[in-house]
Amino acid sequence: MRLTENFTQREFKTKEDVSYIVKELQVLRDFLGERIKIVDYRHRQYVDIKSYEVENEDLILIINSLIDTKDLKKGNTLLNKNSVRYEIN
Predict the structure, then answer these.
(1) What confidence score (pLDDT) does residue 55 get?
(2) DSSP state of 70
(3) Is residue 1 part of a domain?
(4) Is 21 contained in some domain?
(5) Average pLDDT of the residues in 1-10
(6) Which helix or strand (DSSP H or E) is residue 88 part of?
(7) Does residue 89 carry a pLDDT above 90?
(8) Distances 3 to 21, 53, 58, 81, 88 between C-alpha atoms, Å
């Protein structure tokens, strides 16, 4: 089932409602203009993501900047080895 222009329910590997996070990821996707891969999703806790075009070190800076400008909901970010974690507060 398509949730937004660029995300489907299947990408989250869950049947629960992920609308609270998918809206934020769509904002990020629109800003980047590039595909975002859902690496891991934990029930209403966090989502680990990566971009094929943007390095993780830059991706976390972009997310934090979008949080600062209130384009993304306030949350915590963490740079992992192969992804960036975004947790909405």
Answers:
(1) 96
(2) T
(3) no
(4) yes
(5) 92
(6) strand 84-88
(7) no
(8) 11, 23, 26, 28, 18
Report whether 88 contacts 21 (CB < 8 A).
yes
Q: Which residues are paired to 55 by β-bridges?
A: none
Domain for residue 69, yes or no?
yes
* One-letter amino acid for residue 30 of the chain: D
In order, the DSSP letters of 8-59 are BGGGGT--S--HHHHHHHHHHHHHHTS-EEEEEEETTTEEEEEESSS-HHHH
What is the per-residue pLDDT for 82?
A: 94
Q: What is the DSSP letter of 89?
A: -
Reported pTM? 0.91
Partners of 40 in beta bridges: 48
Residue showing tokens 């996070």 = 21
- Phi and psi torsions of 74, nearest 5°: -55, 135
Number of domains in the chain: 1
Average pLDDT over residues 42-59: 93
